[in-house]
Structures are given as structure tokens and as C-alpha cells.
Amino acid sequence: MSAAVLEKLRAGIRRFRTEVYPGHEETYIEAASKPQRPSALIVACADSRIDPELITQSGPGELFVTRNIGNLVPASGEMLGGVSAVIEYAVSAPGVQHIVVCGHSDCGAMKGLLEPEAVAQMPTVENWLKNAHTALSVAKALAQKDERPSELKRRVTEQNVLLQLQHLRTHPSVAGAMAKGELTISGWVYDIGSGEVRIFEEGDSVFVPVEVEEVKA
Ligand SMILES: [Zn+2]
After folding, report:
1. 190 Cα–ligand 1 center, Å
2. Residues having C-beta closer than 5 Å to ion ligand 1
3. Which of 17, 92, 181, 194 falls between 20 and 30 A from 80, CA-CA?
4. For the chain, what is the radius of gyration of the CA atoms?
5. What is the pTM of this model?
6. What's the gap in Å between 108 CA and the centre of ligand 1?
7. Listed residue (68, 70, 92) closest to 82, CA to CA
8. Percent of the chain at pLDDT above 90?
9. pLDDT tens digit string along 190-199?
10. Distance, CA 179 to ligand 1 centroid (Å)?
11. Ligand 1 centroid to residue 180 C-alpha, Å
12. Are strands 184-190 and 197-201 parallel, antiparallel or unpaired?
């Protein structure tokens, strides 16, 4: 079974080399010939249905991306790990001008927050999700009486994105670049089923859908 999975991946690589790469050869050669200068860092969920490059139609060299369960950004000093290092590097070396925290519909991590028993057998995940607990508490406080579970999940997803934006600001590299006016941040929620992306910018009070003129059938 697992050999079949690797074979499927191999077939994909072959298809990329023979059908996709030739059409973009110049772009790839150009990208390899100079240091990367991505303009944005996207912190997205590890969920297999999320594809930051696809939904923003970005090519090689355009996005710096880090993905983890629940698109979390531990506050500075909270956890010295991959996410903090990526943020510091992206802001300091290629000098990204924008950071996005991108949450999404039907997020397993948000389910884990709402139903802790779902992650009780996964001590590492359970511990990681502590970085989102405040979002749960805010979402519950804002919830209407008799709110539907789907509505509460949407609320937790949004509050989690807002919380991670707050955490982002605690990182010295981010706070410094923002103070200099060289960096802005935004929070997104991507709806897997409809493809819609809603964005919360600094100063907004709600997530605003990205307008499209018409959706082609
Ligand atoms: Zn997720």
C-alpha cells in the first residue's frame, strides 16, 4: 500500500518534469539564478486541502510559507522553534513586507480546541494547541445563546487568526519592522468548499471577503 503512495508521488514528479516544467522553464531558471526575494510570508495550516500558492496564484520565489497544525504562531519566548525561526528569518533576511496568518474552514485543530477529547491521545498536538486556547475563550464569550456548533467553529477559527496576529506582534523582528513602517500583517480565513477568502486588515472590525467580478463556471 505505502509503496503505491510513493509510486503515485513519483508519477506526479514525472508529470511535473515533462508537462509543467517545460512551460515555465525560464521562470524556474530565473528563480534559481538569484537570491529569493519573497514579498510575503504566509503562516497556514498543515491541512492537506490548503495550498497558499494556488489560492494566491503565486509562483516560485513569491511566497515564504510555513505551515503547522492550526496556523499557530506561539508568542515570542513561548516556544523556541520552527515558527519563531521562520518569522525572524523571513523578516530579517529576504525582508518580507507582509505577513499573513491564514486559517480555514473545517480545521481539525479548531475541532481539537472545541472537543479536547479528540486530541487526548495526541499529547504533542494537545500541548501545541495551548497556543490557541485564548481564542476558544474569546469565541465562547462572544457566542450567542444556543449558537449552532458550525457557527461557534467559524467564530473560533476567526478568533484564532486574530489571536495569532497578536502573537505575531510580540516577536521583536515583527514589532521592529512594523514600527519602521516596513511590514504589515493581515489575517485570512479560506473556505475550502467555496474557494472564498475573507481578510482582516489592521483597523478592520470584521473579516471582509475578497471581491471577485464573476466566478467562471
Ligand atoms: Zn487546519
Report:
1. 10
2. 45, 47, 107, 109
3. 181
4. 19
5. 0.94
6. 5
7. 68
8. 90
9. 999 999 999 9
10. 30
11. 32
12. antiparallel
Q: Cα–Cα distance between 42 and 29 in angstroms, integer?
A: 24
Using the predicted structure, report yes or no on whether residue 215 has a pLDDT greater than 70: no
Q: Which of 194, 110, 115 is nearest to 153 (CA)?
A: 110
Tell me how far apart the alpha carbons of residues 67 and 102 are, in angstroms, rounded to a whole number: 9
**CA 120 / ligand 1 centre spacing (Å):** 17
Q: What is the mean pLDDT of residues 201-205?
A: 90
Q: How far apart are CA 51 and CA 17, in angstroms?
A: 20
Task: State the chain's mean pLDDT as an integer.
Answer: 95
Burial 107-134 (b: 16+ CB within 10 A, else e): bebbebbeeeeebeeeeebeebbebbeb
User: Strand pairing partners for 100?
Assistant: 42, 186
Tens digit of pLDDT for each residue in 24-79?
999 999 999 999 999 999 999 999 999 999 999 999 999 999 999 999 999 998 87
Nine-digit cell at 100?
Answer: 499573513
